[in-house]
Amino acid sequence: MDLGIKGKWALVCAASKGLGRGCAEALADEGVNLVITARGAEALEATAAALRARPGAGEVRTVAGDITTAEGRAAALAACPQVDILVNNAGGPPPGDFRQWDRETWLKAVDANMLTPIELIKATVDAMAERGFGRIVNITSGAVKAPIDVLGLSNGARSGLTGFIAGLSRQPALASRNVTINNLLPGAFDTDRLRVTMQGTAQKTGQSLDQVAEARRMLAPARRFGTAEEFGALCAFVCSAQAGFLTGQNLLIDGGAYPGTY
């Protein structure tokens, strides 16, 4: 299936590994030109080399820096001739007990996982509307629908972004101009982030990491963790020409772990 986005330009944040890399790979396979960002230059360049080697890949540019800072965002935006596709992604805040978090810890989480995506959307969305095409995908978390007790910082910050997107995505000035904004809510994927979370649970409960991992796998009817490739494939479709009537949605991809109807 041709997704109709060959030659478009995409800015994919935190793309050197994990779910961000999965999204970059799927877009590269569709012939999308990429600007990828991450804080670690070495890992970022290695990912860029792998992306360029994929059949059908377009141009791949790298910007090493912290996307949660004004300087990092400016550098990333400057490297992209035009942003047709924006994939917002940033490392989640650490797990813990809310009693241990001071005001600065909360502000850091909100800045990274709510305000940074909003700033990038603000910088790109009007030009998308003028051109008559735009796809914005925010990688949030399945915890938006089913909060995880040790991820209170993430629960709060990402829920704030979700509420903001619910209103913005439905503005006729955007939706009628073929600009869509959607959120992807990953469940348990085999990423460094998941391993850090499980390690925190292991320390808290006294279980081994293997025990925690097995219990987490069993929470999903699929009885496994998701892969970055699966996540990237969904991201690519949401960014496709065919997905122009899909906006304002929270798409949960969790192997069936969420037990609710809605």
TrEMBL record:
InterPro entries: NAD(P)-bd_dom_sf (IPR036291), SDR (IPR050259), SDR_fam (IPR002347). Pfam families: adh_short_C2 (PF13561). Belongs to the short-chain dehydrogenases/reductases (SDR) family. This is SDR family oxidoreductase. It comes from Rubrivivax albus.
